[in-house]
Design goal:
The structure holds 2 protein chains of 2 kinds.
Chain A: E1 3-10, E2 31-35, E3 38-44, H1 53-69, E4 72-74, E5 79-81, H2 84-93, H3 95-105, E6 108-117, H4 119-129, H5 131-142, H6 147-176, E7 182-185, E8 194-201, H7 205-219, E9 223-231
Antiparallel strand pairs in A: 1-3, 1-4, 1-5, 2-3, 6-8, 6-9, 7-8
Chain B: E1 2-6, H1 19-28, E2 37-38, H2 51-55, H3 58-70, E3 85-88, H4 93-98, H5 105-118, H6 133-143
Parallel strand pairs in B: 1-3
Helix pairs in contact in B: 5-6
Classes of the chains: A alpha+beta, B mainly alpha.
Chain lengths: 237, 144
């Protein structure tokens, strides 16, 4: 049976695993595989494991519990080693590197921020700023046959939305970065203009939250921020 | 503005209602060990498709044009700053509801799929992307 790997911690982590539930149904009990200065938190991998909601939540819950007790390197969901011996072997081989990363991330948590702009608000702003957009809007409103104008309007607006989103993402990132140790941006997707993770020292969590709140207030109505955390430092391992 | 602050993917009154917002972190980031294998994520394609392709499509242009045609230009924009509305410990539904529009069609469908499936913990949290909300919805249905 293969071994499901949740996280890597220091061997001196309390590793209170008894009350935690692993992936699978019924949930697999957890155990630690130790190799020198580092340990891997593992369980048996249930046969036919896939990314079911229950299992993704189990993975995340185990990591959050471990994180609360000390530095934890979160594994990506679904990582399987052949068996405990092989896990120990790999762990031992790269122990210095893991140890170094544990030291770096000790006392840090991840916060994930998604920011969206109210679309109507943004479209009004684009209209206000562009005579061409207003003209195309007038023509397409009154003439159902104005197909080319409709496409031209949509293209103009799409370009503006993308440019404004990117500029805003840059600005917000720049304003928040002093409150975090590191940050990692990724593709925002179609619903948001900003998708970014921050690595924040636990000691300065309050000032980070304050900075996010101030930025949301500065941008005002028409913007929606969703901040999730503290999370295991997925984006910084 | 709205700031929704949520503690984690697994806590909170709605059970694991916030999972959607961190799914990509759990499934697509985190440490990997090259020598090991990963379970199949078939049916869960993280949104790696190039969003620019979706944005630069005739479908999107037409939706934007329609959205512009519907605007009430007389009433103008909202005042830049009004009463602060900080909502603590809410699920993501509060924020998502406000950001619907022409662009959000495709991802909205994915989100719908996820939320629908989330009612049954046996199901996989799917995130299928497609070029338009129509085809996304139909592909989501096929998965069920």
């Amino acid at each position: 049976m293969s071994t499901y790997v949740y996280a890597i911690t220091g061997a001196d982590h309390p590793l209170r695993l008894d009350d935690l539930q692993g992936v699978g149904d019924p949930p697999s009990p957890l155990r630690a595989v130790t190799s020198g200065p580092v340990a891997a938190v593992v369980s048996d991998a249930p046969p036919g494991l896939r990314a079911k909601r229950r299992d993704v939540v189990a993975h995340e819950s185990v990591l959050e519990a471990l994180m609360a007790d000390g530095a934890t390197l979160p594994m990506r969901f679904g990582l399987l080693g052949p068996d405990d011996e092989r896990v120990a072997e790999v762990l031992g081989r790269d122990a210095p590197a893991y140890q170094e990363r544990l030291t770096e991330l000790d006392g840090h948590v991840e916060y994930h921020l998604k920011a969206a702009r109210d679309e109507k608000d943004m479209l009004l702003e684009i209209m206000e700023g562009s005579e061409q957009a207003r003209e195309l809007n007038r023509r397409t409103r009154t003439d159902p046959g104005a197909h080319d104008e409709r496409i031209a309007l949509g293209e103009l607006v799409a370009r503006e939305v993308a440019a404004r989103g990117e500029a805003q993402a840059e600005e917000t990132t720049k304003r928040l970065s002093p409150a975090a140790a590191r940050l990692s941006r990724s593709e925002a997707g179609a619903t948001h203009f900003l998708n970014v993770s921050f690595l924040v020292p636990t000691a300065s969590t309050d000032s980070f939250l304050k900075a996010v709140r101030e930025e949301a207030e500065r941008l005002g109505e028409g913007y929606n921020f969703t901040l999730t955390g503290p999370l295991p430092p997925y984006s910084f391992v | 503005m709205t700031l929704v602050q949520q503690s984690s993917a697994t806590s909170g009154g709605s059970g694991s209602g916030n999972l959607y917002d961190v799914l990509e972190l759990i499934l697509d980031r985190g440490l990997v060990i090259d020598a090991f294998v990963r379970v199949s994520l078939v049916g869960i394609e993280i949104l790696k498709i190039d969003v620019r392709v979706v944005v630069a499509s005739v479908d999107t242009y037409l939706r934007f044009a329609e959205a512009c045609n519907r605007l009430d230009l007389e009433s103008g924009r909202k005042a830049p700053t009004q009463l602060t509305d900080i909502v603590g410990d809410m699920t993501e539904s509060g924020a998502k509801g406000k950001s619907k529009g022409a662009l959000s069609g495709a991802v909205e469908a994915i989100s719908d799929t996820l939320h629908r499936k989330s009612e049954d913990s046996e199901e996989e949290p799917s995130r299928r992307a497609a070029r338009s909300s129509t085809s996304s919805r139909s592909s989501a249905k096929r998965e069920e």
